[in-house]
Design brief:
The structure is a homodimer.
Chain A (H helix, E strand, L loop, with lengths): L2 H4 L9 H9 L6 H13 L4 H14 L3 H13 L14 E5 L7 H11 L4 E4 L10 H5 L11 H10 L2 E4 L7 H11 L7 H14 L4 E8 L8 H17 L3 E8 L7 E2 L1 H14 L4 H17 L6 H13 L2 H12 L4 H5 L9 E6 L4 E6 L1 H13 L13 E4 L6 E2 L4 E7 L5 H10 L1 E4 L9 E4 L1
Parallel strand pairs in A: 1-4, 2-3, 4-5
Antiparallel strand pairs in A: 5-13, 6-9, 7-11, 8-10, 8-12, 9-11
């Protein structure tokens, strides 16, 4: 008997080009085939140029729910998976698809912890025209978003919440794939978005997840239909991956709350946590998301009970206390929390006023986000540093009645800014009409 | 004045991801944008993984005729362009999309030269399930397909034809892109095929081109519609690129001529050139292509006159003389041309016979091609060497009436071949039915 004939029979390895072709032609890949592609991305047996062709084929042909779940699982399996089963209490997280002035996480994480949940929140940086939770938190001097697994565990055990960045050991395939998607025009694909979000949430140790899918001019999903599609794909994939999941569709045709800009948003959060009140839309979305989290975690029998508990914990100062503990644990300046004048100051602080009588009927919310970036409050390339002082605080929201001279916004501009030019750009992003128009509903749908 | 404000204003470079997105969304790229992508592939400013995503987007969204011409031009401009304006006579080439037993080039190039054309033919290796002209020619001991530009020029000047491989300096972008397409499932795209073929033909110095677009079970294009689409795209792109172009659609539901396999095909060509006769289908396609080349080159007033001239030059031995001169010039053994017994001999030469009465109604021609590869007469990977001795010589073609015992084929098999198993596989590729079926037309269309 020859050596060859006594060798164990091993299955032929998959050929990347054949798998790309299968997807290109609308076929359905098996779990093993998807696992092969993602593992190959990490070990180098599948080339970047093959992955990017595959991603473009997925952009055009999509993935079945089963493929999306396998894709999520493959990315999860590419790295470490945190488990916090020794910590009592349900582990529940929230994920937002991103919007202008979306500062919910900073209020919600300590609020949910104050209600008895454990919130292992891994958040992101600014992306496209929207800001990022990590960038906002770093407006607090010393705040460290890079906790070790052990410190993260300790924060969850002793406080019940922490907000950190994605560690190197978590879903490395997702990090690599995301970088590839970013430069190959393959970001906007539902199954790829689902896999990216959910692999990280599964890895961070969440048992349930509540999604805030933003819809409107200041969100990636411009229409309710698009948003609903994404929410449904996320919920379906999450369930197949053993993650309980609910979702809100919320409106993003104007900034959420009053402040836009990293430091200004943190200040708005601190004020809401300290006083228990603030912008009604920010509060409403936060309370509703917290209620869904509490229900998903099994701490309340229904959403109504969840809303009641959340409102109490926001009002009684226990969320505020959790926030202070979290900031202290993560090395942030607690002095700043009690003395807001310590936040970085913008060079120019100016009021911009209504120039005609009418109603605020529309806002180009994406343009507001782009202005923040152009002011230095966001990144154009990953190496850019962020100016936490710039931004806007709105005094009027959609539907407001205006007479000339009414203050619409306080603008915080950097040194050297051409104030007149910025005001012109800002005013151009607003529509003031003679007739009041229906203000879009804040919470569009609960799925 | 600061240094920055006195700097000359340069246009912003294109961003690859934006161009990929434009194509992904069905947009039309400008000449400059296409030029940027192809030049970027060569200088490294556009990454392979971006090109492959772009190629997949082109696969789905296509290219306009203008984009295809710009793409062709960009690939042409990536390398050297041969010009033979000092050699008198029209420079006309032929390109076939490839088929089983397609040995036309070996007869046609010397025939066209004998009629007064200059034929600067750059040919290819075996691809997929079809053989390659270069591989076939290398069955002649010593035949060198890698002539320098100077030697190529000399061959064209003194003989009027030469058949060589694509030199390193010709369309390097096409070579790089083709390698990328091969491993990213983006080969089958009309504009990409057009650009690849035509950039090389423009670079080799042809002024006119005649296409033989093969259609049928032994061709890449299985249907007449597909073939016509490709022919039209090629003609339109060629014209936009200043290359005169005609095309034949010819049937590929059975091998062309009688022989399939590298050495066997050369022997068939030698016999046709030497005697002026042979398989009617091979002769007809060759004469018709030559007539179109002569018309395109302006040496005859119409195709009928071209057919007459071509038939004369094949019959009077002048094509045979050109072939011998070409082989000698390219270092090939002229002794073999006169003593066919010097061609490599297969280990097994067997007759396979009809096992039942009926008509030969169908042939899986692609399977015939795959058998040649599996016998060692083609490559599974680029590093494989080719056995020139293996193959088939057919004694019956589609429509033939068979009685049991009639010899269908002589098979030339390599040492160690399981003759019974090969016969079984061969017989399975044939359909013998009780009723005569219409034999597909050989020349389906002239465009």
């Amino acid at each position: 008997m020859s050596a060859a004939s006594t060798a164990p029979s091993v299955p032929l390895p998959f050929r990347p080009a054949i798998l790309i072709q299968k997807k290109r032609d609308g076929g359905t890949l098996t779990d093993a085939e998807i696992q092969f592609l993602i593992a190959g991305l990490i070990d180098g047996s599948v080339a970047d140029y093959q992955l990017s062709a595959f991603l473009m084929a997925v952009y055009f042909k999509g993935m079945t729910p089963e493929e999306t779940a396998a894709f999520t699982r493959a990315m999860l399996d590419s790295g470490e998976r945190y488990r916090f089963s020794d910590i009592p209490g349900p582990k529940v997280d929230k994920h937002s698809t991103g919007g202008i002035g979306d500062k919910v996480s900073m209020v919600l994480a300590p609020l949910a912890a104050a209600c008895g949940l454990v919130v292992p929140m891994m958040a992101g940086r600014g992306l496209g025209f929207t800001g990022g939770t990590l960038d906002k938190l770093e407006s607090i001097a010393g705040f460290d978003v890079r906790l070790s697994k052990e410190r993260f565990h300790e924060a969850l055990r002793t406080i019940g919440c922490a907000i950190i960045g994605q560690s190197e050991s978590i879903a490395p395939a997702d990090r690599k794939l995301y970088a590839l998607r970013d430069v190959t025009a393959t970001v906007e694909s539902l199954p790829l978005i689902c896999g990216s979000i959910l692999s990280k949430k599964l890895a961070e140790g969440a048992e349930a997840l509540v999604l805030d899918v933003k819809v409107g001019s200041g969100a990636f999903m411009k229409s309710k239909d698009q948003g609903r599609k994404l929410a449904k794909a996320l919920i379906s994939t999450a369930k197949k991956s053993g993650l309980k999941c609910r979702a809100l569709l919320t409106n993003m045709d104007q900034p959420l709350g009053t402040a836009v800009g990293n430091g200004l948003e943190i200040v708005e959060c601190i004020e809401m946590l300290r006083t228990g009140s603030g912008a009604p839309d920010l509060k409403e979305v936060t309370i509703q998301l917290c209620a869904l989290m509490l229900e998903a975690g099994g701490l309340v029998r229904n959403v109504a009970a969840g809303r009641k508990l959340a409102a109490e914990r926001l009002a009684d100062g226990s969320a505020w206390k959790k926030f202070q503990q979290m900031v202290e644990f993560q090395g942030g300046s607690t002095r700043m929390l009690h003395d807001l004048s310590l936040f970085p100051k913008a060079a120019h602080v100016v009021e911009w006023k209504a120039m005609k009588r009418g109603f605020l009927t529309k806002m180009d919310n994406e343009e507001i986000g782009r202005m923040i970036i152009d002011l230095g409050g966001g990144r154009k390339k990953t190496s850019d540093t962020i100016d936490p002082s710039v931004g806007f605080v709105f005094h009027k929201k959609l539907g407001a009645k205006l007479v000339p001279g009414d203050s619409i916004v306080t603008a915080y501009l950097p040194k050297g800014a051409d104030v007149r030019a910025w005001e012109k750009r800002f005013q151009a992003a607003l529509q003031i009409g003679p007739q009041r128009k229906a203000v879009p509903k804040l919470i569009l749908e609960t799925l």
